[in-house]
């Protein structure tokens, strides 16, 4: 077998004539032979160069023999892959031969060296070494390719996750847009119907007054004027509530840590006339301190209290209980991966006329009313404002009721926004 010219072989022997003999035999085959006349010299060479394909090592050398030298060579990780053929002038027993193989030697050649046998054994181990190196190089290439593929897969997964996130954001944006469009539709309905209805009545009664002026029926004027006044007041309420609803959407106030008891007492003071008029009884238990938008929470409390007073039974004075409880994170927030540690539920419970539980969601829809405005005065915007305020605070609002058995509104707010 013919070796490649680039193959380097290290020959180690304390006798110069033996080194010259090995060099002469192997150089004819195109090998590059590097010579060392002792074990120490071989180790020095291997510290500088480690690209040898094979080491030919004399066993019997002064100071450091071939087996000792081989042991020191194989202690270095970079040199463990180089095969060693031991050259000896003696016939060793099996124990010594086994020791040589155990430390990493691959074969023995006996002196005097047979040139043909040396060439043959060297070519076999050089070819084996080269193929092993090729396998190592191929393995490294495969590892690099595998690492590249893993990186590409990781990037692809990251891209897929980003796409999923973007899709979810798009879905959420579409849902918000749909909700906004629905609100705009309801605004359009109000603009075309509810807001125009008081105006139509004002015009109607104004025409009737004009017709009655100068006739014997002038006694009806006071009645018509009262109806005009009622329609005007209702128109004013609608416009004011619409403005509140719109401003709530665009509010940029800073959140503050506020005692809910203080806000509630301010609301009760504002509603003092309605409370006295209806003989309402309001019982309050200590409420928590929360991080909120004070103006909006004050409006929330006012709307809920006004509702409880407004929807009381005709023959019963309103009784309203307000209390709270501290709870862990709300399940609906956990499902959205929103971190919340502590929540507080604030209850508004009354003894009013109540409503059918099947309407517990509808009542928070803007302009949705369960009673005609002739029965109970209002615009149908108050509870939708409450819902928007609570959502602005990352909370929830719900209602529980039965006809004739009062209603309970439950507001859940995080302790810290």
3D structure, described in words:
- Helix content is 52%, strand content 17%.
- It is α/β, with parallel strands linked by helices.
- It folds into 2 domains: 8-136, Response regulator (Rossmann fold, 3-Layer(aba) Sandwich), CATH 3.40.50.2300; 251-417, Heat Shock Protein 90.
- The protein has a 5-stranded parallel beta sheet, with helices on both faces.
- β3 (54-58), α3 and β4 form a beta-alpha-beta unit.
- It is rod-shaped.
- Mean pLDDT is 78; it is low at 1-5, 334-339 and 366-379.
Task: Summarize the structure in short.
This protein is an alpha/beta fold and 417 residues long.
CATH superfamily of the largest domain: Histidine kinase-like ATPase, C-terminal domain
SSE order: EHEHEHEHEHHHEHHEEHEHEHEE
Shape verdict: rod-shaped
- The low-pLDDT segments are 1-5, 334-339, 366-379
Compute the number of helices.
12
What percentage of residues falls in helices of 4 or more residues?
40-55%
What structural category characterises the helix and strand content?
Answer: alpha/beta
| Major sheet: arrangement of strands | 2-1-3-4-5
Distance between the termini: 82 Å
Beta-strand percent range: 15-25%
CATH class of the largest domain: Alpha Beta
User: Mean of residue pLDDT?
Assistant: 78
Assembly level: single chain
Largest sheet: 5 strands, parallel
By DSSP, the count of extended strands is 12
Over all CA atoms, what is the radius of gyration?
48 Å
